[in-house]
Amino acid sequence: MNAAKEGDKVRVHYTGRLENGDVFDDSRDREPLEFTIGEGKIIPGFEEAVKGMSPGDTSTETIPCKKAYGERREDLVVSLERSELPDDIDPDIGQPLQMEQNDGSRLNVIVTDRDESTITLDANHPLAGRDLEFQIELVEIA
What DSSP designation does 52 have? Predict the structure, then answer.
């Protein structure tokens, strides 16, 4: 059987777990994840884990945060005066928002704190700074 390599389009099922065993994502109840190895559309450690697998193979891999969503960065946490927000926005803690950057691009953030005068926004990926464990099954090399 062929082993998955750079440039191959693959389909995989996976279960993603945190260090404490909690499942954060599972593809078993939907179509397998399809991607081309080397395109960089998924986390690097996941791509590396699939390389060398053949259809039907399963593997459990721990992916360090540096090869997943990166280290948590404090420079991506900002506090703003509420007066800087549009009048019609009164966000709750945990609420996702989008901020427009100086170059016109949009940045996804989560509200992490708020009080009468300020709001704290976090642009880190929710899984940043976490090592992740994936149980992977290579379904197909297309």
Answer: T
Give the confidence band of 86 by pLDDT, cuts at 50, 70, 90: confident
Please, where in the chain does CATH 3.10.50.40 lie?
A: 9-70+127-141
**CATH class of the domain comprising 75-122:** mainly beta
Entry pTM = 0.83
**Mind listing the pLDDT tens digit for each residue in 64-81?**
999 999 999 999 999 999
Residue 76: phi and psi, rounded to 5, are -95, 10
Quote the CA–CA distance of 112 and 41 in Å, as a whole number.
Answer: 27
Joined tokens for residue 49? 């884990």
Topology, domain 9-70+127-141: Chitinase A; domain 3 (3.10.50)
* Cα angle 61-65-71, degrees, rounded to a multiple of 5: 180
